[in-house]
Amino acid sequence: MYLARVVGTCVATRKVPDLAGEKLLVVQPLDAEQHPKGTHQVAVDTVRAGLGELVFLVGAREAAQALDRPFVPVDAAIVGIVDDIA
Amino acid sequence: MKVCRVISTVVATAKHPAFHGHTLLMCQPLDARGESAGDAILAVDHAQAGIGDTVLVNQEGNGSRQILGTLDGKLPIRSVIVGIVDDVHVA
Fold this sequence. Notes:
The complex is a heterodimer. Chain A is 0% helix and 43% strand. Chain A is mainly beta.
């Protein structure tokens, strides 16, 4: 699981039916000092995150488990909005 | 599993229900000499760890589900702190 900043939205009309209704956001992964790390990713949003917010994501197979439907083909899901890091 | 040092606490109000009641800690992986190595990871605490502790982080979903249980058979949590390290010895 890792930190990221929401930097954009992603819209796809033609997609796997199980992805219907899921909000896709573009995120920039961050390191521990909140500096950008690596390339942008598209992630499914489960917590109504917005542009510019600091969020945390779960990756790999567990990303799909953040959604209600089983067997959704996603590899990154936003599962929390960060209030504070202390 | 990775040996890591806990570097901070992450507080989130809006989060997936699976994270309710869990403490989320930022962990810096360490090499054999105890120096920082690789990217920091966020892990759910299951060992009452605190900032500065050296911990063991399991980064695998099946183990997480066995430790934390599931919601309707699912759990979107991958990294869990499963132990506090007293000592590491590398020959």
